[in-house]
Sequence to fold (494 residues):
Amino acid sequence: MSHAVIELSNISYAFPDRDNTLDGLSFHLHEGEKLGLFGPNGAGKSTMLHILMGLITPDEGQVTLFGAPMTDAKAFEAARLRIGFLFQHSDDQLFCPTVLDDVAFGPLNQGLSAEDATERAAEALQTVGLAGFEDRIPHRLSGGEKKLAALATVLAMKPEVLVLDEPTTGLSPEAKARLAEILKGLNMARLVVSHDMDFLSDTADRLLAMRDGKIRPGELKPHSHTHVHEEGDMPHEH
Amino acid sequence: MAFSDSPFATGDSFMHRTDPRVRLVCGLAVTVPAALLTDSQAAWLALAFSLLLVKMARLNLVRVLNRLAVVNVFIAFLWLFLPFSLPGYPLWSIGPLNLTQEGVDLALLITVKSNAIVLSLMALLGTIPVQDLGPALQQLKMPDKLCHILLFTYRYIFVIHKEYVTMRQAMRARGFRPRTNRHTYRSYAWLVGMLLVRSWDRAERVGEAMRCRGFRGRFYSLARFDARTGDYAFLALCLLFSAFVVYLGFIRKGAL
Fold:
């Protein structure tokens, strides 16, 4: 078995004044694994991700990243540089005056020179299909372009793991399909958290479900649905 | 969109090619003495120099005049009151009101100075793209916090404005019509309060996203500025002019 890159054990966390809590949650992600985490809104998915990035300190439990126990803020600082975390809202992630500045921000923080960072940025933009967007203004991009630009900002850091928080929020079906295509082309381990079942089954090899503050193995059983679409009475294939 | 996005920042003139750091220093050197002037001769000279700067930046004249018009609306109010409220040699009387030479002179001085300063800033600072402004200020050893505030204000003012517009539309959709009453004031207060709360939440999320990408309180910029001979010549020109204005407006009159 390969090593666990992310490991949460017995995490408990309660928000003051709110009832969605994590209650003895455990889970691990192995090298090269593509994991999907499904859960209804308010199940604590985002909270779990913030705990694993060290943005929230859990009441109980242990976070282990790349085999090292995360005991203090310093340990998290180093580990974060190896995890690409895509936020739910791209406007929170893209904060620079130009796309290039934004994509180069991470590599510059990693200590790369301006030339190397620019090269990394160009490479990452190429990967997500936004080559030539360097001088564009982030807030003027479309929702789908913003999401891809945000993905480029984390890919430019050459992460060993990708963590995506509700990546399909607000995306058109076309943008969703494009994002899924790009993800399928990346071979680092990833954790996709979403309530969009179609997207998850498209981009993950294994599914887990989150309920009542715990994680359970998800079940994929073949079953059929009736569905409605235009010209449904014509013979067609899916 | 209600916010104009820097219209002068793009262009291909001598001014646009000048090192942004030089333009910032020149902006300071030219406008501070102009703002303090009390001498009309020096003020007219400053106006002439500002026109030269605008010419060097090859700005779109219609846009320049549009912006000047906004400034001069405020100055127009001065012309309503100042010429009548300063004691001095009466030029014209209407009832108890005296139009005085001193009043007219002062209003004219303020008009000339204001226009000179606005024109200079348009040509010198308005031509710096925002992505260069932060790094340029940082390299001039301005406090990091000020540079960060500038950068984030520019980036998020559009997002906050969009939130404001969305909330206004939601209010209108529920039949809200602004009137002069308690309900209107209270609703506006809630709107502003909600904008503040949302901005605060967003600031936290942006900060978290930055930390996730390894931010530790300092920006490393891609911008590389390179001051060449032309830049130094321009800097020298602005400093010389500034010195001349100081001489004309202050030293010659014995004010310094």
